[in-house]
Structure formats: structure tokens, C-alpha cells
Amino acid sequence: MKHHHWGYVFIAPWLIGFLVFTAGPMLTSLFLSFQVYDLHRMDYVGVENYRRLLTVDPIFWKSLRVTMLYAVFSVPLGVAGSLALAVLLNQKVAGQYLFRTMFYMPSLVPAVASALVWQWLFNTDNGALNQFLGWFGFPAVAWLQNEHWTLPAFVLMSLWGIGGARMVIFLAGLQGVPDSLMEAATLDGASPWRRFRNVTLPLLSPVLFFNLVMGCIGAIQIFTSAYVMTGGGPNNASRFYALYLFQTAFEQFKIGKASAMAWILFVILLAITAIQFYGSRRWVYYERSSS
Amino acid sequence: MRAGRLAGWIGLAAAVFTAGCDAPPADGKIEIRYMAWGTPQQLALEKQFCEEFSRKQGRVRVKFIQVPSSAYLNKMILMLASRTAPDVMRVDHYNFPSLVAKDYFYRLDDLVAADKSYRKTDYFPVTIEEGLYQGDLYGLNVLFGAPVIYYNKDLLRAAGLEEPYALWKRGEWTWDTYLRYAKAMTTKDAKGKPRTFGATVTAFPFQCAVIYAFGGEIMKDGRVCLAEGKAAEAMRFLYELRFVHKAEPNASQAANSLFSFDGGKIGMNIDWMGVTPRLREVAKFDWDVCPLPMKPGGTAMVKGNQLVMSAESKHPKEAWEFMKFMTGRETEEKLYVQMRRCFPTRKDVAYSPEYLRSGDQPPHHLDAFVYEVEHGRTLPITSRWSEWNTEFSSGIEPLFNGTTADVDGTLREAERRANATLAVQEGL
Known about the structure:
By secondary structure, chain A is mainly alpha-helical.
């Protein structure tokens, strides 16, 4: 065997895994998106699945709208929250490691368990959230029963994750900001806010960008909490895209339609990510050593 | 040479992957596979049945495959689609029409005709009716039953009320009385917070039991008609029970089992006969059962599961023997008389003194079960039941969540959405 063939041998497990478990199913789903397929009968229908989704199916548009609204609110709030928390936990105070552990812990709770806890918190009559609001004279809100309040409830719940992996990445980024720059800014008389705004934030912008991209992809794929807490209700107010896709594929067994939905989601995510990358040229600063 | 080596590797891989698949048992017995889901107690009993059948048959062995209920449907569909389904399996009747239409199941008529020991007349006609598809028999009914009213006798006593069963026996058990009872058993604490509720009727399709009892229809000429006539009247009754009379917990009060019948905080609960073994285990209060009140023209609602044979079964005769055994007198006596799970499909078991005899534990009024089945009607479940049901249930959520009080308008819109779903070609 030639020397360079060993390279292929070593990457073969990954390559085979990718072809069998990722590329294969992706291409199959592309093929299926042009069929009516219920695991039994398969009929070619051309672009009918796409046409019906885009022009006839009202739940498709509702689920897309609900998902986008969720992403628009939860991603900026979540990223800002994680950044703020990371800045606080980067302060050299007593018990720093304890605080970091405490704030990270909620993200270790399994998604299903946390959804059940939040179901309790959102309970109209006995939930902690309404009791808290009641102290300030606010009326009880039917968070998960009133279709106008369901989306805000899910956005609120998404903030549960601000202390998770995103915060850890910010924390790592903050620790990479050179002390010399901060000292120079301090000597120049920059206030803490100016130091954060003009030194920390530009140096942190690649991390911020990464978290924004990943946050958007994650938010658009929201599934578990809605599946456990509302099943998509009330009146489709929390029928997020991934949930609708799952229900179409594995509850109604409309595999062709679900495959078309998956490809539409892929294109949407690709477009959003491309726009983010294009926009990042204006505000993301990559430090490069000058030679 | 290279090609030969490659073929060798492929052959080895195929042998490794398929090892154990369909291998004949070493003892030369015929093995048939049976797949089901259920409660741990029921599955333990079914395992015993499999062992007993294997012992009696001698030359046949039943391999029992237990699957959690949450994963059952998907697993079964994938097995059927990949032609690896077990010889015999249980199918929830909600899924039976869509699967039987795909020719997944063995047509049983020839086996029935050739078998003198099996008589359809031994069974309640409605149980046979459910297993038919285009006039042919594909399923034997098991775990059959109807919703009944479970009532908390402690709460009745506290409210100074007579048992509903006694009223029913005298012909005085009406929906007006039901409402009066529900209101009387709804109590509040000193701060005005609910302590107990008089009744609960869980979501659609349980509401169908009330619709049938009111004399309403669910579908007419292939269209959903739940916004019309008696069906709409029943839905209005249920809405008012919750939001006008406040005698039923709303969605948030019922969430997380804050107010549940099992917890002793509900006076009357409409539920399947099959929950009896669980209640016997968990209820820390005195309880019993009675039929739902019935308006003129009203009926009860019945539904079962189907015991079906895979069309791919290599041992249809043996599988048929097993299906017969699972719906035979001996088995039904153990499952329905001793364990009180659901209702017998065999008339001789249902009318036997053993079944009707009141034991140490509730329910004591077994004639209530018999009455419901005798007056029972099946649900119009077709291959598109779940599709339109999802849409209809979603449409009536604003009504039963209390975000609208427009009963007629909400029902009409939900009905329109359900019928719009049915108007689309199946599968799209």
C-alpha cells in the first residue's frame, strides 16, 4: 500500500459514517421530497409538496412565523444575557468558581426535565411566575393556555440557558482579552464602559459572531420544550417548525411532505447564516499579527 | 482475485449483520413472535399467556416482544414497512384502519371458515365490527371497552349526595343531575381557592363519549359535523361545565395533576374501563362506577384494540391458534375477570356470574360496564382520523382554554378546518 493511502484508511471510519449517516439520508430526503410517501406507497409528485407547503398549507406559514419570531426575540436576549453573565463572572471576586458552577448548572438539567419544571412555573393558578407578578398587582397570565402569551413564555424560558455553553465561550473569550490593552485604556482615562465598548467588545466580536450564528440555528430548531409542554398548542401558537416537521413525518407519516419541509428549513438556515457572514465583515474584528 | 476478496468481505459482513435473524430454533419448534404494549401488570399476564400457550401447544413457541407505548406505533410501522413485523401484534384501533388499508395484515376469513372451534357469535357484534375492513375480518378485538363515570364516594358523602349508580338504576340519572352533582362536589377553601372539583372530562376524543350520549354524530357522509345539532349541544354543555359553572378544572388547574381523580380531588371522571386496575392500586378513597347519562337517541361509545396477524407471517395457522387463545374464554377470564382490565369481548365471560360478582375491591357495579357495551357504538375511525382530529382539537383549544366564549363560532371554525384537511388528497 502506498504511503498516502494510509491517510484514507485513517479517515475511512469518519468518511463512511458521514456518507452512510449524513450524506445518504440527506440525499434520500431530497429524493423523497418529490414523492408522496407513507412508508408503504411511493408516488412521484414533482414539486407538489413544495408548492402545497408554500401556497396552501396555513400551518406551514404559521409555524415558520412563530419560529422566526421566537428566534428574533430569544437570540439577542440570550446572547446579551450570556455576555452580561460572563462579564460578571469574570470579575475577580471571592467565590468566583462557585458562582460560575452555580450559573452553569441549569444547563446540565435534561431538556425534558427543565420543560416539566417550567410547566409548573407557568401554571396560571399556582405557578411561581404568576405568584411573583401578583405581588406587584399584575393579573394572572395564562402563559401556556392563551395563544397570545405562549410565545413570550417560550422566549422567557429560553433565558434559562444563558448560563450554559454560550456563557462559557464568552468567558473564554473575555479571558483572552490582553491585560496590557485594558491597562493602556485605563491609563488613558477610559471609563469601565468605554473600556468594555472600545476594547473588550471588538476583541470579543468573533466570539459574539459565533454565538449569534449558533444561537440562530439552535433557536430555529427549537423542539423539545414545545413537544413536552404544549404539543404545539394552543391553536398552533407554539407549533414551531421542527415540531411541525416531526409531527408531519412521525405522527402523520407524510414523509415526502416532511422531507420537503426539511429542505426548506435547510435553505432558510443557509440564507440566514450567509447573511450573517456577509454582515459580519462590518463588525467582526479578527486580530492578526502584522509581519 | 481482488473482486473475490471483496465478495468474501461483503459475505462476511452480511453474515455478521444477519446472524440470528430468522434462524430456526435449535429445538426444532416453530417460533411465532407476538408484540404488544401495556401496563406492567398486564404485560406480565400476557407473558404468562405466551408461556402457557407454548406449553400447551408443545411444538410452537411464542416469543413475546414488549415495546413501550410511546415508541410502539413507530416501531410497528417500521417493522411492517420493512416486512419484519411479528406474526401477531396488537394495534390500537385508532391506527388499525390506516394500516389495514396498506395490506399489512392477514385476512382472517378463511381461517375462521375452516375452524369450527371459532364462532363469531361468541363475541359482542360490535367487537367483530371493529375488526372488519371492507367487509372482511382482519382483527380480533382485545382490551375492548367504553368510557364510564368513575365517582369518588367520599366526596359524594361529604356533599350529602346519593350514589349516581342508584339514580341510574331508578332511571333518574340525567345530564341535569350530572351537572347538579358536579356543582355540589365543587368546593373552595377559606381563601376562595378551589379544593375539589365535581367533574372532569378530558380532551377530545373523550368528549365523543358525551357527544354520543347526547345523541350527536361525529361524522356524516364523510364530513366532520361536530358543530351541528346534538354534537354542538354536547360541546356547549362541556364548555359551560368548565367556564360557566366552574365545576371542572380548567387546563392550568388540571395541569401537573394538581386536580386529578386519582388524587381524590375530582368527584366524577369519565374514563375507559381499562383504568380500573390502576385505580385499585393508587386510589386512597372509596370509589365506584356508573354509566354516562343518556339523552333520548343517545348511545355509549366503545373502542378496542385489534389483535392482527402480519400478512408476511410464515406460520399463519400457528399464529391463528395463538390469536384464538388470546381471545379465548380462559384468557379473557384472567385478564378481564381477575384483573378487571377493560371489558371481555366474549359474551359468555361478560355475562358470567364470576364477572358480574362484586368482589372486595371496587368497582362493584359491573352491570354498568355491561350496559355501556350493550348500548355502545364504534367511533368513525378511518385512516384520516388522527389527521382531522389534530386540526379539530387545535381549533377548539381557544374554547376550552377560556380565551373565547364564542362556542358556535369556534366549533364552526374548528369543523371547517377539519373538513378542509379531509378535502386534501390523502398523503399530501
